[in-house]
Amino acid sequence: MSDERAAQESLVRNWSRYSLDHKTQCVSMTAQGSPSHVELVSCIEIMRDGASIQRANSLLNVSEPRTRQAPSSRRSNNGPRQ
Q1: pTM over 0.85
Q2: pLDDT tens for residues 7-17?
Q3: Is 72 among the domain residues?
Q4: How big is the CA angle at 70 (ends 64 and 74), to the nearest 5 degrees?
């Protein structure tokens, strides 16, 4: 129960610093089921960190990582190898 209390105190202390979009999204996500202050703080921190990474990537002009396709194991249609 002390984790919940610490999370609630953190929310009260920092609520005005959080992005309205992040608060709205996280409150709606954590409102399903039994609400938890710990889950809300975690969600807001993840959203904040993700936004920071996106800003840093855009400043560095870094694009999203691309997945590499595995090389094809099919042989060409030129017939069997000799």
Answers
A1: no
A2: 999 999 999 99
A3: no
A4: 150
